[in-house]
Design a protein that fits this description.
The complex is a heterodimer of chains A (406) and B (288). Chain A has 406 residues and is mainly α. Chain A contains 16 helices and no strands. Classes of the chains: A mainly alpha (406), B alpha+beta (288). The interface between A and B is large, with 73 and 79 residues.
């Protein structure tokens, strides 16, 4: 197919993209200055990391091969990105149109989360240039959970790109391309849900062989299922919190449809979160009783477990339920924030805090590890903002899209 | 349209299954009958630390001056030392224990490795291949003995561990520590032969040994076997590992992967069709 057949004029597209690259609002704002400083420091530290090795910037050790770059950036970041597949399931499989207005922004968020947080994995690899080895096929370690996770990350990023691509085509005015990409959506959604089921649980399965290294209150052969179930409310809470922030920040980019549906979406999500949290709480209790874990409660780790279970699972459960019953928007948001904190706590517990709880030298991240993590988060927010300001993510699609409908 | 999408989805799924169909745990055949192995008899070890010296030399590593004070506290192998001797004292005697990679019959590290950089050779030693490794350190997380070590202060880091002198074995030689041990506390042979020998020693002098060969069953069996005069927990061996091979901890999950890949998509499509009658707006959703 030539570019003409697809209705693409390369010259004008090029000019258009150049014009879009220019900033659309004030450059010097508080947020931008902070973001610039953090990203600049992060960039310097990343150079240091590659010149001097991981030990120069991280507190990783022989005892703790994985720190917050894995435990927070990848494991927690991907759980938060679970909103995309959960919402796709609700909208495209269950056919609940109510959530349709926020599907694009959620998928975009998910896609960027994978690009940046799974991308952060490259910083953590000792030999990132060998990252192609499991892909090009000169050495498939098919018995490795990591192999599955790596492939699924890659394939899932592709499906999310396909899902969000009609928005890119609308932005560029590529009508034929948009039609074609739009036709791929359902296939991408189904493949995406399948891949997500497997790699959300796969992230948990990574810890299965660390059997004696993770405190028994967190280790279980059912970690994969717990990770999968919790990724649903982790992702949807992210949608609640992020949606409430966008509601303020991107007000001028928001279509009437998105604006008006905001409240009913919040309450719908609160209900789903509450139900899944109850399921999760039930699973956790079942494992607790079945494993006869009460002997572990009377210790520091036992207290931490209770804090996680009561403060960050049971409590948001109740908050979401009540907020839904009394239609209280503020409490839905509070529930969302507590649930997110709970997910951070849970993922860090499994990967860092309850990991080798017996060790003499415990791992605590260096300021540089935290700095680089912040730099990645800010970079993602800047890209997200750039896209939302230009493309029909929260705003309506261009008129020609509506006209093309039959 | 519906059918086309379905076929497309199936095609995509078919492709994605290819790399994920799994064989489960590595080398499930016999539990290493023909593997080369090492038997370490801690009752014979005098703590001369010759093995430490020759190991550094054989692996081309930086040599250092050894002091008796090294033995005052328990040490772990490191990126600078692949094997070492620890001293454990009780009222009656001093027990010297050599430490290195256990060369599991079904190693967690090798099954964890997504590039097969960590490899269980058919001869028995577990080796690491630099050109394959991504440096993800999943092997370190998975190893029940915490053996693999990583060079955190290198721009081109290696995973470092004992290879049972695989290259020397390939040339018909013995592992350096075995060849140079003056008190024959370390012997080399086929795993089954060494197990027989270990049992013979226990049977001949039951007063000198506890009736346990560490490594016969631990973590599914290892190619480094130990004899001891005291229970193994007293010389700080990990006795809580169980007798199942570590890769088996992930087989359940890995077996469910192809099932989910095959069953999930048609199930989702069916559910979508079923919901169409119920929520009357699925059609609109698709057309938007």
């Amino acid at each position: 197919m030539s570019s003409n057949e697809l209705g693409i004029n390369i010259k004008s597209t090029y000019k258009f993209i150049l014009s879009e690259l220019k900033p659309k609002s004030k450059i010097i704002t508080h947020f931008n200055v902070i973001a610039f400083i953090i990203i600049a420091i992060g960039a310097v530290l990343i150079v240091l990391r590659f010149v001097k090795g991981l030990g120069a910037v991280t507190n990783l050790s022989q005892e703790y091969p994985w720190g917050i770059w894995i435990g927070f950036d990848v494991i927690t970041g991907v759980a938060f990105a679970g909103g995309a597949y959960s919402l796709c399931f609700i909208v495209y499989i269950l056919g609940d149109k109510k959530y349709k207005p926020i599907i694009r922004v959620t998928v975009l968020n998910g896609f960027l989360a994978y690009v940046f947080y799974a991308g952060a994995l490259l910083l953590d690899l000792g030999k990132p240039w060998n990252v192609i080895n499991p892909i090009i096929g000169n050495s498939f370690g098919v018995s490795s959970v990591m192999f599955l996770v790596a492939w699924h990350f890659m394939l899932y990023m592709l499906t999310e790109l396909v899902e969000i691509s009609p928005a890119f085509a609308e932005w560029l005015g590529w009508r034929k391309v948009r039609k074609y990409l739009h036709g791929l959506t359902l296939g991408a959604v189904i493949l995406g849900i399948t891949l997500s089921t497997l790699h959300q649980s796969g992230l948990g399965a990574l810890f299965l062989m660390a059997k004696n290294k993770i405190h028994p209150l967190w280790y279980s052969e059912f970690i994969p299922i717990l990770f999968f179930v919790s990724s649903i409310f982790a992702g949807l809470s992210m949608v609640i919190v992020e949606g409430s922030i966008s509601h303020k920040v991107f007000k001028n980019r928001m279509s009437d449809e998105v604006s008006k549906s905001h409240n009913s979406i919040l309450f719908g999500l609160a209900k789903i979160c509450a139900v899944v949290l109850y399921v999760y709480l039930f699973l956790k209790l079942l494992l607790f009783i079945h494993g006869e874990h009460w002997v572990h409660l009377n210790s520091q780790m036992g207290v931490l477990w209770l804090v996680e279970m009561i403060g960050f699972v049971a409590l948001p459960c109740v908050i979401f339920t009540q907020a839904f019953r009394y239609r209280n928007e503020l409490w839905v948001k509070i529930g969302g924030i507590i649930t997110m904190l709970g997910i951070i706590l849970n993922r860090l517990n499994v990967s860092v805090i309850a990991f080798k709880w017996y060790a003499a030298d415990r791992y605590f991240p260096s300021w540089m590890e935290i700095e680089i993590t912040l730099a990645i988060i800010f970079l993602e927010i800047l890209v997200l903002r750039w896209i939302i300001h230009r493309m029909p993510i929260l705003s309506d699609s261009p008129v020609w899209v509506k006209n093309e409908k039959h | 349209m519906e059918r086309r999408t379905f076929v497309k989805t199936l095609g995509a799924i078919g492709l994605s299954t290819l790399p994920t169909i799994t064989k489960g745990a590595e080398s499930k055949s016999s539990p290493g009958e023909e593997f080369n192995a090492i038997l370490i008899d801690t009752t014979l070890c005098t703590g001369c630390r010759t093995c430490e010296e020759v190991c550094l030399e054989a692996n081309g590593m930086q040599e250092f001056e050894m002091n008796d004070s090294d033995l005052e506290k328990e040490r772990d192998t490191s990126t600078d030392q692949l094997t070492l001797i620890n001293l454990y004292e009780n009222e009656e005697n001093e027990i010297y224990v050599k430490k290195q990679c256990m060369h599991c019959s079904q190693p967690a590290c090798a099954s964890a490795c997504l590039t097969k950089a960590m490899l269980k050779t058919k001869e028995g030693p577990v080796i690491w291949r630099e050109d394959k490794c991504m440096g993800c350190r999943f092997c370190m997380l998975s190893c029940p003995f915490d053996v693999p070590k990583f060079e955190y202060h290198s721009a081109n880091p290696k995973i470092v561990k004992c290879t049972m002198c695989f290259e020397r074995q390939q040339k018909g030689g013995l592992p350096a520590c075995v060849e140079n041990c003056p008190s024959e506390a370390i012997i080399f042979g086929k795993r089954t032969e060494l197990l027989t020998e270990a049992k013979r020693r226990i049977a001949e002098s039951p007063d000198d040994y506890v009736n346990h060969i560490y490594g016969e069953h631990e973590a599914g069996g290892t190619c480094v076997l130990y004899l001891s005069s005291v229970p193994f927990e007293e010389i700080n061996f990990r006795t809580n590992l169980g007798n199942d091979a570590y890769p088996e901890l992930t087989t359940g999950f890995l077996y469910s992967v192809p099932l989910v890949i095959i069953l999930w998509p048609p199930f989702l499509l069916a559910m979508r069709n079923a919901m169409k009658g119920k929520v009357n707006n699925a059609e609109e959703v698709e057309n938007e």
